[in-house]
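step=encode ok
step=design start
structure_in=
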């Protein structure tokens, strides 16, 4: 069975407070985008589960890969047979796009369907939460307001049909710990759940990613990409998650694919929302 785990972007990311357990309370809107990996899972030809990766280099041991962790979690709960997993990595890592989390979540949903397990989305999301903070989002894979440590979800009504998106990932990657080390938590004057309902033309002035304050001084290229996207006509541009990918949302035909050649030595995705 073949599926296509997709990336996500964050529209706004407010770091509200530091918790006693060392985590942070945040609020962010996560939106799926059609930049996808390719995942195939089939019953194993042998007695052991295997993972074969293609595309982008995956620098981790098999058992540490989130796809295998997802399989092990399902295997433990539902006594699954061995499988052969083939993963073609296309979404960049260290980008704030959730590629690894998407792969894990799609592993859960694919196994659920392949072996007719019948688990509900709520059950799969519960399993996904044990694998990574972003994983449950990809079980539902719809625009979502995330609060708490990023694992409390509420669906939102957000329609971006008719808009185009360009995502630019420079060669730098940003470790999450590094991103959090430079932030100063603060409660925004207006909650993101209200701002997201304002016209997109107003977002650039009111909706921001707090991680930009700590990442831009360390990686000037990320700030430059955001500015270039705005100069290209993006109605809204922002870093996604803790970076380093930056996206721009464009109206109608204001973005042509050839425009992406302006970004040297970067991974580029251009598509429809």
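sequence_out=
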């Amino acid at each position: 069975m073949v599926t296509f785990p997709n990336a996500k972007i964050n529209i706004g990311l407010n770091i509200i407070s530091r918790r006693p357990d060392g985590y942070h309370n945040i609020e962010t809107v996560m939106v799926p985008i059609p930049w996808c990996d390719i995942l195939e899972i089939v019953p194993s030809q042998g007695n052991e589960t295997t993972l074969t990766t293609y595309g982008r280099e995956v620098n981790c041991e098999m058992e540490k890969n989130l796809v295998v962790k997802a399989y092990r979690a399902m295997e433990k709960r539902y006594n699954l047979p061995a499988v052969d997993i083939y993963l073609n990595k296309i979404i960049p890592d260290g980008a704030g796009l959730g590629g690894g989390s998407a792969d894990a979540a799609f592993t859960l949903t694919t196994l659920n369907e392949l072996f007719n397990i019948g688990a509900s989305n709520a059950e799969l999301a519960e399993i996904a939460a044990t694998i990574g903070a972003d994983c449950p989002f990809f079980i539902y894979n719809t625009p979502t307001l995330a609060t708490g440590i990023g694992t409390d979800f509420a669906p939102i009504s957000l329609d971006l049909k008719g808009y185009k998106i360009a995502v630019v990932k420079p060669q730098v990657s940003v470790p999450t710990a590094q991103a959090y080390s430079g932030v100063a938590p603060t409660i925004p004057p207006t909650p993101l759940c209200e701002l997201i309902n304002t016209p997109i033309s107003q977002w650039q002035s009111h909706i921001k990613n707090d991680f930009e304050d700590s990442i831009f001084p360390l990686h000037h290229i990320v700030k430059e990409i955001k500015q270039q996207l705005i100069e290209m006509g993006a109605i809204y541009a922002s870093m996604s998650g803790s970076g380093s990918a930056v996206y721009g949302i464009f109206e109608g035909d204001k973005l042509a694919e050839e425009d992406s050649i302006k970004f040297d030595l970067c991974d580029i995705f251009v598509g429809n929302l």
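step=design ok
step=annotate ok -> Residues 163-272 form a domain with the Alpha-Beta Plaits fold (CATH 3.30.70.890).
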